[in-house]
Structures are given as structure tokens and as C-alpha cells.
Design a protein that fits this description.
Length: 426
């Protein structure tokens, strides 16, 4: 297996395509975006990530992106499907991009090809949706071609856990599909590859990984609300509990859950189980709690300003951070995108700034956002904010209220400086 096609050059597909090129594969990338194709072929990453930018630059000429399916899939030994799988407005799985990718593969499928779905999907998707579409080619899965699922495990911006160092799990429609998928990943990563007995187990594994996080974040978010009432510092409590060397894993509260995985994946399991007559009450409650944090941020802003004799209506707010996590330009399901309209509905005047996302900022600098502001709301703890927003600097700007949605700042230092400071549960 030395010729590969990666369908979808986003947060998952682009790093995979670069890794394959570095490992000596002849790689083509199939994309729907002309802009992404042009940038990739020019050695430019369309994703803001220092490491990935270097990777794309170094594999220029080895990774060939195109919008032409026949060209991309021609002679490919392995096809990795890395397209988005979001949920719709009713929180039901939207698999249109996956179906479209499978149609393109079916039209160019040949005997011996290995098709691997990396996109996050609910249990049963590979066999019930992907396989029938692919078999419209006249070829049979597990006999004429091979079909497997290896759930992606990309963490944008994570400098410790890069793609080659992350263990993978694979499942397939038959033993040979699993075996071939295991060999493929064994060629490109430096971590263990666990082969599972069924493709549904592989599909479920990814859902469980992220649902686990969603549930635990919901737990600490609810604790944060409770501890605000009880006047207990939730961050101090979590750090204290973390001294126990077994049986506890720290999670921290925030303004909600962002990213394509944690905020979306639970809905896939909820929807699939519902089709079989099972109601995931616990998962639905976790989603409800985490989504409620958006409104809670607004409540805290109202309370903080009222305590200073001010109203949120017409208040000038420096709203800092749009990305869902620090130091990246990824806005997928970012809580900030939901909090901003809620604040505006209350009449707040927002000066929005994110150094990584100029297109969604309405001021050009942190300085401009802070000028004359009544309050600061930090929704994303970018390093630029952590370095610049010292108690001395904020006090000099005469900003009375500071709401830290990520509990990333030293609240004691701010309070000593005479600034009304509030964290989530702190």
C-alpha cells in the first residue's frame, strides 16, 4: 500500500495527508473547496497551526490536492474518508458529506482497494450506510474491496500528542479488512494499533471517548453553579481532589463545550439508541447542562455589573476570544458564538477580539477592545490575553469588572488590585 487518497483536507484529513506524504506514500487529497486545494498545492496550510503549517510546506509537491474525484482516486490503494459529520438543528446526525464521499469512491472503486472511514459516526454507519453505497459499484465489501473504520483522534493545537504518537483502534466489516487497516496504520504511526472484533465497536469507541468527557465536564459545570451559591472555590476543590493518586480525574468548568467532537458526538449515540427504543437520559442531561453555561455567563455578567451599579444594557464589553480552545483558530461549536448573541440581545455593546480570528473580530487589537470598556469577558484563554491582562494593566485601564470564563487568571491578584473579578465557580 503506497498510494493513498484522503477525502477531506480539514482538521483531520490535512494532518493525515501530510503524515502519509512524509512516510513515502503517493498522496492525493480530494476537497470541495477550491481555496483549500490552491493553498495546499502551494504549500500553505489553511488551518492556523505552526506545526501543521510546517508540515504542509515540507510536503509541497508530494501531496497533490484536487476537486476532481476521478483524479484523486485513480490507482489509490487506500482511501481515508475524513469529511465533517455534524448534527443538524434538531441535533440529528448529518451524514450528507459522508454519503457524497462514498458515492465518489463507488464511482472509482476497484478490486483490492482499502476504504477507511475516519469521520466520527454512530454505531452501524459503516455497515448500514457506507457499505451499501460502495457496493453499488458492483464490488462486494470484504471480498472485492475492504472496508474499515478508524476513528480520528486529532486534538488541534496539542503540541504533545501529534498524530504519529496517538494510539489508534480499527474495526472492519470482516477480519481481512481489520488486518489490512492495522497494517496501514502500523506503517505510519509510532503508537499501538488495537484491532477490534467488530466495526461497531470501533464506531462506538470514539463516541464513548468524547461522551465521557462531556459528562464529566457537565458534572463540574453543575458543581460550579452550586459552589457559586455555597461560596466555595470549585477550582481549589478540584485541585485538592486531584491530590488523590487514584480514582479521580480532574475536569474543569467553563462557558460550555466546543469543538467538533465533545459537543456533537453524544448526539450520535443518543439518536442511534433512540432508533432502537433506548433513551439516553444521562447523556441528554449532560448536553443540557453544558449548553446552559452560555446563559450562565450572561447571568454572571449581569450580576457583576449590577454590583458596580451598572446595567448590562449599553455596557461596553471587551469580549475576548472566539475560538473554542486556546491558541487555535478553530471556532467549531465554540461557546463564544452562542454567548455573543445572548449579550447583544441584552443590549451590551461588544468589542470582540480574537488574535487568531480576525474575520470575526470587530476591533483590530486588544488595546482597541479594552479602550473605555466597562467590563472584560475572557471566553478563550489565548496566551496573548494571559500575558497582557495583568491586574496592574487592567486597573490602569479603569475596567471595573473582569469575568474569567476559563478560570485561567489569578483571582487573588486581581481582587488585591481592587478589581471586581469573577470566574466560573470561583
Amino acid at each position: 500500500m503506497k498510494k493513498a487518497c484522503v477525502i477531506g483536507l480539514g482538521y483531520v484529513g490535512l494532518p493525515l495527508a501530510c503524515l502519509l506524504a512524509r512516510k513515502g506514500f503517493e498522496v492525493s487529497g480530494l476537497e470541495v473547496s477550491d481555496e483549500i486545494v490552491e493553498k495546499t498545492n502551494s504549500g500553505i496550510s489553511h488551518i492556523e497551526d505552526e506545526f501543521l503549517a510546517k508540515e504542509v510546506r515540507e510536503v509541497k509537491g508530494k501531496l497533490k490536492a484536487t476537486t476532481n474525484a476521478a483524479e484523486a482516486l485513480k490507482n489509490a490503494d487506500v482511501v481515508a474518508v475524513c469529511v465533517p459529520t455534524p448534527v443538524d438543528k434538531q441535533f440529528l446526525p448529518d451524514l450528507e458529506a459522508l454519503k457524497s464521499a462514498c458515492v465518489s469512491i463507488a464511482e472509482n472503486l476497484r478490486k483490492g482497494m482499502l476504504v477507511i472511514i475516519e469521520s466520527t459516526i454512530y454505531p452501524g454507519t459503516t455497515e448500514e450506510i457506507a457499505q451499501p453505497i460502495l457496493e453499488k459499484s458492483g464490488l462486494k465489501a470484504g471480498v472485492d474491496f475492504f472496508l474499515a473504520h478508524c476513528p480520528e483522534r486529532i486534538d488541534p493545537g496539542n503540541r504533545k500528542w501529534r498524530l504519529p504518537q496517538i494510539p489508534r483502534v480499527v474495526g472492519g466489516v470482516n477480519k481481512e479488512s481489520v488486518r489490512l487497516a492495522g497494517i496501514f496504520y502500523g506503517q505510519i504511526i509510532d503508537a499501538p494499533v488495537k484491532e477490534l472484533r467488530s466495526v461497531r465497536s470501533a464506531e462506538a469507541a470514539k463516541i464513548v471517548e468524547n461522551t465521557f468527557r462531556d459528562i464529566n465536564i457537565a458534572f463540574v459545570n453543575e458543581l460550579a453553579k452550586s459552589f457559586d451559591v455555597l461560596n466555595i472555590d470549585v477550582k481549589e476543590v478540584i485541585e485538592a481532589a486531584s491530590t488523590k493518586p487514584f480514582g479521580f480525574m480532574p475536569f474543569y468548568p467553563g462557558p460550555g463545550v466546543g469543538g467538533h467532537c465533545i459537543a456533537v458526538d453524544p448526539y450520535y449515540l443518543i439518536a442511534k439508541a433512540k432508533q432502537s427504543g433506548f433513551d439516553h437520559k444521562f447523556l441528554r442531561l449532560a448536553r443540557e447542562i453544558n449548553d446552559s453555561m452560555r446563559e450562565y455567563v450572561v447571568e454572571l455578567a449581569v450580576e457583576g455589573l449590577n454590583a458596580l451599579g451598572k446595567s448590562l444594557k449599553d455596557a461596553k464589553i471587551a469580549f475576548l476570544g472566539i475560538a473554542y480552545k486556546p491558541d487555535v483558530d478553530d471556532t467549531r461549536e465554540s461557546p463564544a458564538l452562542y454567548i455573543i448573541p445572548l449579550l447583544r440581545k441584552k443590549g451590551a455593546v461588544l468589542r470582540i477580539f480574537d488574535p487568531h480570528i480576525e474575520a470575526l473580530s470587530n476591533v483590530e487589537s486588544l488595546e482597541a477592545a479594552l479602550e473605555g470598556a466597562d467590563a472584560i469577558i475572557v471566553a478563550t484563554s489565548h496566551k496573548e490575553f494571559l500575558q497582557a491582562l495583568t491586574p496592574k494593566f487592567v486597573r490602569k485601564k479603569k475596567i471595573g469588572f473582569f469575568l474569567d470564563c476559563r478560570n485561567a487568571f489569578d483571582k487573588v491578584a486581581f481582587k488585591k488590585a481592587g478589581i471586581a473579578f469573577k470566574g466560573i465557580g470561583c
